[in-house]
Design goal:
The protein is α+β, with helices and mostly antiparallel strands and about 325 residues long. It has seven helices and 14 strands. The structure holds adenosine-5'-diphosphate and manganese (II) ion (3 copies). The site of one manganese (II) ion has 4 residues, from strand 6.
Length: about 325
């Protein structure tokens, strides 16, 4: 019987920023039809992942979504939720708290910085490179650094069937972005988690780190965010200035609730500089990259039909918390 390789991956209990963990299960199967039906619930040692105490260490892994593993023959990546031994969601399991709504679409802009020896790649050994300006969407040695890894990551995302919609070099040297789009809150957040997993896997091969910290270099250097573009059916099909600005006003009222789940150390990034609004202010505006929420100019020109961009989430934010907060504020409950 052929042997299939299933990489069960999950989010650990480390605080303030959880990490990803994974382990391989080999199964003898006549054939694998895809999906979770043929995959058993598994377990792991939660005392080694900040999810349990040593005297009662078992946590359960419940497969919830399966992707082809582009790095392995007959291999699959199994996104799993962590459950307590009694089958209830573990407290670290933010996915289980999302009430999915398929009419919501999300497009995440995941920014990150490739690091070597504690510095962004491309930075000189001593001191700093020339000031920001030439690095955004750059081409050419000296202004672009890391493209080989980024290209390979893009290919892995495509081969895994993720909704990756684009890639670009970012404002700081060594900083990059890719976008993940999905229809449905869980689908889009799941794809984002898999894209992060593939990125971390790839860094092992290159010997560089992918840093999701929102402000990896202090000073006059851009931080990293995870802008969350979102829409529901009414925004896409009905639109109108009133509908869109009413949503923005509801977000003004829930600003603190959002910031609380938009990532650790986000205060270092949301300063009012470097294309951000201050963490303690809320604003929205057409085409405004200094606002908390930007109404894209194309949306305004199209009778305010389309989507909004929440610019506040940090690069290290939990996408399940982000989609839950956004859907709650859009719905006003
Ligand atoms: P920016 O101009 O802010 O850099 P990007 O092009 O990087 O924008 O990202 C925009 C994201 O918004 C893309 O991932 C795209 O798929 C997503 N997007 C486009 N339309 C919608 C929509 N109706 N609902 C949700 N997301 C959308
Ligand atoms: Mn972008
Ligand atoms: Mn960006
Ligand atoms: Mn953006």
């Amino acid at each position: 019987m052929p042997k299939f390789k299933f990489e069960y991956i999950w989010t650990d209990g480390c605080l303030p920023v959880p990490g990803l963990r994974g382990k391989t299960k080999i199964l003898d199967l006549k054939s694998y039809k895809g999906g979770v039906k043929q995959l058993p619930v598994w377990n792991f040692d939660g005392s080694s992942t900040q999810q349990a105490e040593g005297f009662a260490s078992d946590c359960l892994l419940k497969p919830v979504s399966v992707y082809p593993d582009p790095t392995r023959e007959r291999g699959y990546i199994v996104l799993s939720e962590v459950l307590n031994p009694d089958g209830k969601p573990h407290i670290s399991n933010s996915r289980a708290r999302v009430k999915d709504d398929k009419q919501f679409w999300f497009g995440f802009e995941q920014e990150y910085v490739l690091m070597f020896n504690g510095k962004p790649i491309g930075f000189p050994k001593d001191g700093f490179p020339a000031p920001q300006g030439p690095y955004y969407c750059s081409v050419g040695d000296g202004v672009n650094s890391g493209r080989e890894l980024v290209e390979e990551h893009m290919e892995l995302c495509l081969d895994a069937g993720l909704g990756i919609t684009g890639v670009n070099a970012e404002v700081m040297l060594g900083q990059w972005e890719y976008q993940i789009f999905g229809k449905g809150a869980l689908k889009s957040a799941d794809d984002l988690m898999i894209s992060r997993y593939l990125l971390q896997r790839l860094t092992e091969k290159y010997g560089v780190k992918a840093d999701l910290h929102p402000k990896p270099v202090r000073g006059d250097w851009n931080g990293s965010g995870m802008h969350a573009n979102f829409s529901n059916k009414a925004m896409r099909e009905k639109g109108g200035e009133k509908l869109m600005t009413d949503i923005c006003k509801r977000f003004a009222a829930t600003h603190k609730k959002h910031i609380a789940v938009y990532g650790a150390d986000n205060d270092q990034r949301l300063t009012g500089r470097h294309e951000t609004q201050s963490i303690d202010k809320f604003s929205y505006g057409v085409s405004d990259r200094g606002a908390s929420i930007r109404i894209p100019v194309g949306v305004a020109l199209n009778k305010y039909k389309g989507y909004l961009e929440d610019r506040r989430p940090a690069s290290n934010a939990d996408p399940y918390e982000v989609v839950a907060a956004i859907m709650s504020s859009v719905k006003g409950k």
